Amino acid sequence: MNQKHRQNQKQKAGMLKRGWTTGACATAATKSAFTALITGEFLDPVSIILPKGDAPSFALAYEGLGDNFATAAIIKDAGDDPDVTHGALIIAEIKRLKPGLGIIFKAGDGVGTVTRAGLPIEVGQAAINPVPRQLMSDVITQLAKKYAVPADVEICIRIPDGENIAKKTWNPRLGILGGLSILGTTGIVHPFSCSAWIASIHRGVDVARAAGIFHIAGSTGSTSEAAVAKFHNLPEIALMDMGDFVGGLLKYVRHQPVERVTIAGGFAKITKLAMGLRDLHSARGQVDFNWMAAQFIVLGAAENLLPKIKNANTALEVLTLADAHNVDIAPHIAALALAHAIIITNNKTVKIDIVITNRQGDVIAHKEATT
Q: Has this prediction a pTM greater than 0.85?
C-alpha cells in the first residue's frame, strides 16, 4: 500500500495525525535552550502552551551549552500533512545580551529575511511571524521571572537546508530571501487543511498592494501562470500561485481590494468555477457532464452531440468534441466563471476577468466585465 493510499484510507477513517508548526517547534527549542542557559539543564522532553490551550511535548534532537549561549533543536513533525518542512531541524540558539536590550530575533542559516513591504514583519527583519515571536517572547519572559534573571536575549533560529526547502514555497516570490519563514497562528498543523497555502496567497496580495501593484492574477498552475503573465504583461510580484483556492483569493480581495484580478486556469478548473465551486481540487468536486451538456444546449449544439458530452471521461474530451462540432464552449464557460467570481468577490471596486488556457499555454478564452 503506497503512502498516498494510506493517507486516503486514514482520511476516510478520520485518523489523520495532526502536526506542529515551525513556530511551535522554535518555541519549544527556545524554552529548553533558555532553561539550560539559566540552570545548566535542558528540558527534554519540553512542553509548551499553544494559543488555544494545547500543551504538546517535544523531544530534543540536539543540545549544546556554552559560556554565554545554549542551543536546542527539534525535528518538525507535520503529522500526516504533506508539508515541505516535515522532518526539518528547527534550531534555537539563545545568547545573553546586556540588560535593557530586550528580546532580539535573528535569522540564522536557512531562515529568511523580509525584503519587501506588505508582510506582517518589517523589511530587514527575520521572517519569524508575529505569533511565533510572541510565543517565544512569552516563554523567555516567564522563565526569566521564575528564575529572577534578566529577559535580555538574542533568539537565533536556524534551519539546516532551509534555503533549498524555501524554493518549494512562496517565500522567494514574497521577497523573503535566504530561507524559510517561522510560521503558525495556532501552533498546530491540521492535515490537508491547506491553511498555509491560503495564508501565502493572502501575503502575496499584501506584498503586491504594498508595492503599488493594481492588477494581480491568480493561476491554477504554472502553465496558466506563464500564459496570463504574457497575456497581461504582468510582473512576477503580481502573480499569485492560487492553485485550487480561487475562493481563498477572491474572498481576501473583497476586504483587501486591488483594482483588477485575473483568474487563469485550464478548461477543467475554470469549468468548476463556472459551476459555482470555490475549491477546484478534484477531491472537493468534479466536472458535472450533465451540467456541461446543458451548456451545449444553451449554445445551440446538435441533439446527437449531447450523449457524447454526458458520457465524456474528461473535460479535455468535452473541449475536443466542442472544437470538432464548432461549439464555442470555452468563452461561454469563461463568462459563467466570471459571474461566479464577481459574486464571490462581492466588491464592485474590483474588476475581474477570466483567462482559460489549453495545455500548451495558449489562451483559448478571455472574458471580463463590461461595466
A: no
